[in-house]
Design a protein that fits this description.
By secondary structure, the chain is α/β, with parallel strands linked by helices. It has 13 helices and 17 strands. The chain folds into two domains: 373 residues, Alkaline Phosphatase, subunit A, CATH 3.40.720; 79 residues, Arylsulfatase, C-terminal domain (2-Layer Sandwich). 28% of the residues lie in helices and 18% in strands. The longest helix is centred in the middle third of the chain and has 22 residues.
Length: 458
């Protein structure tokens, strides 16, 4: 009922036809398991990303940008709903065997924009439920083209996802496509199985460019969620490097090529000053896959972790004429902030809707004076349904038992001076520990008392 009332509320705006002068186009480019360092302007020593670097030159680089989870499904649910994963029940990675997904009663960013007359398209990896009830076309997207879950699922060959198996697949290229029986879908139908993963990045890009070209006269929302660089790594022939130790490098460079094609399509459509483009990853790199995974340096750890390398990701935003060029933001921001920010840009009042956790960060994007709310915000780190850590300002506090062995004491890090979280400062700063732990416990209790269920099949 909550979502129904909210959709009615935002739907009132749909009776007024909007133009690009009223609301900008929105493009969100989301990569899978890409490390904080794996972009040229974020310090990669060997990955060339001229298009992403050019985006940063034309826009703004965010150096303290967080995803709401260090694994796929919860991170994606958070981006599309503006909520921490436990609030909406999506707290674990979804598998082909699962009969759950993002609840259709939730209101997504696509539904908010659709209520204002936007054309909406999802391209790429979805991973929020593969049954029709949970697919993008039932969450506000006019169309969908992509794979419904991770590309390493539906493995049919033993040890395929080991480092040795991934080495073999990279060397075989197209001959290894059948090692995974992952479906490629258009809307709610499977159009190819197994998906030819060597062509996915190029086909996603072609689909995205066609959408931009077709919808150039009216506001549009494009959600382009690349399958790569999640393992297994595949690239087209144009980007293939025989040396398996450079597989990850080649994969990111094809994604960078894709970014360039998207940027060029926006320019050709004459929409450069009318389009907000956001690039980030869904979580940190899968370090256990060695040369098939990326790097989060100088951050600690990677995917699965609540240390910075698991949830702080490289983010670049571009909006010519609105976001200052060649600028940098070191304030905290997150994917959960995209929904309230974009809703504000589209003129949709979401204050009467279901509870969300994100904040409007337009001031951060434009480099303007921050509100007290943005200056004093806290960010919460969950693993499943358990609150593990909280950050406020330069301080990050881990609750006792927040590490894998469950016996570790509480830890406090000062990120401004200790970005890789090595020196525990809790003994010297008991007042900070008390303030952060109290704030986090209060927030967690409120969230748990107001959480909403994951979607279930009947």
């Amino acid at each position: 009922m909550t979502r129904i009332l909210f959709v009615i509320a935002v739907g009132l705006f749909a009776f007024t036809k909007i133009t690009l002068a009223d609301s900008p186009n929105i493009i969100i480019i989301y990569t899978d398991d890409q490390g904080y360092q794996d972009v040229g302007v974020f310090g990669s020593p060997n990955i060339k990303t001229p298009n992403l670097d050019g985006m940063a030159e034309a826009g703004r680089k965010f150096t303290n940008y967080y995803v709401a989870s260090s694994v796929c499904s919860p991170s994606r649910a958070a981006l599309l709903t503006g909520c921490y994963p436990p609030r909406i029940g999506v707290t674990k990675v979804l598998f082909p065997r699962d009969r759950v997904g993002l609840n259709p009663q939730e209101t997504t960013l696509a539904e908010i924009l659709k209520s204002k007359g936007y054309a909406t398209a999802a391209v790429g990896k979805w991973h929020l439920g593969h049954h029709p009830k949970f697919l993008p076309t039932n969450h506000g997207f006019d169309s969908y083209f992509g794979i419904p879950y991770s590309n390493d699922m539906d493995a049919v060959k033993p040890n395929t996802n080991s480092v040795q198996g991934l080495d073999e697949a990279w060397k075989l290229g197209k001959e290894a496509i059948g090692f995974w029986n992952v479906p490629l879908m258009r809307n709610e139908k499977i159009v190819e199985r197994p998906a030819d993963q060597t062509t996915l990045t190029k086909r996603y890009t072609k689909e995205a460019v066609k959408f931009i070209e077709r919808k150039r006269e009216n506001p549009f929302f494009l959600y382009l969620a690349h399958t790569m660089p999640h393992i297994p790594l595949f690239v087209s022939e144009d980007f293939y490097i025989e040396d398996v130790k450079k597989a990850y490098q080649a994969t990111i460079q094809e994604i960078d090529w894709s970014v360039g094609r998207i940027l060029n399509a926006v320019k050709r459509a004459g929409q450069n000053e009318n389009t907000l483009i956001v690039f980030s990853a869904d979580n940190g790199p899968w370090l256990g896959k060695k040369h098939h995974g990326g790097a989060a340096l100088p951050l600690r750890d990677g995917k699965f972790s609540q240390f910075e390398g698991g949830q702080r990701v490289a983010c670049i935003m571009q909006w010519s004429g609105t976001i200052p060029a060649s600028s940098e933001c070191s304030e905290m921001a997150s994917t959960i902030d995209l929904l309230p920010t974009i809703a504000g840009l589209a003129g949709v009042d979401i204050s009467s809707g279901p509870k969300i956790d994100g904040l409007n960060i337009l001031a951060l994007m434009k480099g303007e004076t921050l509100s007290v709310e943005l200056k004093n915000r806290s960010f919460y780190f969950y693993r499943g349904t358990t609150l593990r850590a909280v950050r406020q300002g330069p301080w990050k506090y881990f609750f006792p038992g927040s590490r894998r062995n469950r016996t570790t004491p509480a830890q406090l890090y000062h990120l401004s001076s200790d970005i890789n979280e090595q020196t525990d400062r809790s003994a010297d700063n008991p007042e900070v520990v008390e303030r952060l732990s109290s704030t986090a416990i209060e927030f967690d209790e409120d969230l748990k008392n107001n959480r909403r269920p994951i979607g279930q099949l009947n």
